[in-house]
Design brief:
By secondary structure, the chain is mainly alpha-helical. The chain has one domain. The protein has 12 helices and no strands. The chain has helices spanning about 1-20, 30-50, 50-65, 70-90, 100, 115-120, 120-135, 140-190, 195-235, 235-250, 255-265, 275-284. The two termini are about 35 Å apart.
Length: about 280
């Protein structure tokens, strides 16, 4: 919602100020300048990125409009799931988790949280971590750097679309200059003719520079920053799982281990201890 509101504020402020200073909005409508700038930016974007990143930019823009992937209710589910897993391992031994890890879609633990089961990446991260703990008898100082490496890879991949869009933003002022230069070339061919025609060509050339800068700093750059922020916020779910597992391996009981995980969450999505307890009781 804020993305839409912010875009409206940019458009109204720029056009409103232009009209208030006796400008003609029609003079800013230069479709061929947009073709030059937009086409060149799109071409550069396709050259510099893989098809995977190109597709993820589209889904990332849609994701920004939807808001964060994980909300307070989702974090309550993650914390409750980790508590049940750790409690089961404490009560029945680590080997009791093997069937849950191998077939999470049939697991009595995971089936209580269908959204987590449908989240392929998060589910894979949880089951892979548990598989290492069950089969590898890993100590905390062995598991933690391994999870850190996996999280670093995940963060890098999640932020790649935002970085790709940010590079497009950086290129737009330059492509605006390209459009302006081509406009001046057209203008030079009109010199000696009607002065109003020459003036129109010069205005169109200047609009190219204007559009490149406006698109870069008013829309594409902020959108890339919003995508990066969303990726970092969504990564908290993975860090939450890691904190619970590592602290449990360090000897803390499930209640304290899950509390470690809860404390790393941002205040706007962090459930209170009372909310977490109530949710756990409701999930049983």
């Amino acid at each position: 919602m804020l993305v839409i509101v912010g875009s409206i504020v940019v458009v109204v402020s720029v056009l409103g100020g232009f009209v208030a200073s006796h400008g003609q909005v029609g003079a800013l409508w230069q479709p061929f300048e947009l073709v030059i700038i937009g086409g060149a930016a799109l071409g550069g974007f396709l050259i510099s990125n893989s098809m995977k990143v190109v597709k993820e930019v589209g889904s990332g823009i849609f994701g920004v409009l939807k808001g964060p992937q994980y909300k307070k209710k989702d974090y309550l589910d993650i914390l409750s799931l980790m508590y049940e897993i750790l409690s089961s391992a404490r009560k029945n031994g680590l080997m009791s988790l093997e069937s849950h890890v191998e077939e999470p879609d049939k697991s009595t633990l995971f089936s209580k949280y269908p959204k987590i089961v449908k989240d392929h990446h998060l589910l894979e991260f949880i089951t892979d971590c548990l598989r290492m703990i069950v089969s590898g008898n890993m100590s905390p100082h062995e598991l933690e750097p391994l999870l850190e490496a996996e999280l670093e890879t995940h963060h890098h991949e999640a932020e790649a679309p935002a970085h790709a869009l940010s590079k497009v933003s950086d290129s737009l002022p330059g492509f605006g200059i390209v459009a302006a230069v081509l406009g001046i070339v057209t203008t030079m061919g009109s010199i000696g003719g009607d002065i109003s025609v020459v003036g129109g060509h010069v205005a169109a050339a200047l609009v190219g520079t204007f559009l490149g800068i406006l698109l870069a700093y008013g829309f594409v750059g902020p959108l890339a920053a919003a995508m990066e922020g969303r990726a970092k916020e969504d990564a908290k779910a993975y860090e939450c799982v890691k904190a619970a597992l590592v602290s449990n391996l360090q000897g803390y009981n499930p209640n304290i281990a899950v509390e470690f995980a809860r404390k790393i969450l941002s205040h706007n999505v962090r459930p209170t201890f009372a909310e977490f307890e109530a949710h756990c009781r409701g999930a049983k």
